[in-house]
Known about the structure:
The protein is of the alpha+beta class and 260 residues long. The protein has helices at 32-116, 137-147, 252-255, and strands at residues 11-17, 25-31, 128-131, 166-170, 175-177, 182-188, 195-200, 205-211, 222-223, 228-231, 238-245, 248-250. Strands 3, 4, 6, 7, 8, 9, 11 and 12 form an 8-stranded antiparallel sheet that branches.
Amino acid sequence: xxxxxxxxxxxxxxxxxxxxxxxxxxxxxxxxxxxxxxxxxxxxxxxxxxxxxxxxxxxxxxxxxxxxxxxxxxxxxxxxxxxxxxxxxxxxxxxxxxxxxxxxxxxxxxxxxxxxxxxxxxxxxxxxxxxxxxxxxxxxxxxxxxxxxxxxxxxxxxxxxxxxxxxxxxxxxxxxxxxxxxxxxxxxxxxxxxxxxxxxxxxxxxxxxxxxxxxxxxxxxxxxxxxxxxxxxxxxxxxxxxxxxxxxxxxxxxxxxxxx
Length: 260
């Protein structure tokens, strides 16, 4: 006699008991298969959460590591920039010092150049006397003319008071010279009249040299201090000298620097 064995299905009963005065009881029958499925789902969920947490944690650690590396790099870069900035600041300070020194030197050179073009020199190459004008000068000249009427007359230079002109008397062989560098603005040499040379020094100063001789410089030529303008002979021993500053005449004796 054959006996057929049947598998019994195992079920679990879950009882829910209420604390209410009226007690209600509920019974829930859970099959083993359903419980296994729920457990499996929970297990998978836990595994997934653990994997996700691990990945997230490693990602966070990796980002933190990269951020730390970036912070270190930025710190090194900042230190490098600070060092370069200090170097540049030092160079700027040095350049500013050099520029200030150069500007000071340029100002000194400019001042020296301007000073060199101020007519402070003596208008004669050698010794000369300053002729004093007197009221009897004209009368004495007329007496001399009357005493020797046949003798050739020499034109006498009369100082122009409005020019504050001074008259120098020098011996033969002396030269009338420029008192500062400049450009010969005008010359005149007319027989029977006083000759003259006018020099523009380019800084507002203009000097005029009047003599009975003939100018030895040409109009428009550039001259330096001390260059000869007239040669003093027996008939042209007197030289009139005047200075203008911005079209106003100044006393030459206040400008001339007499050395020795």
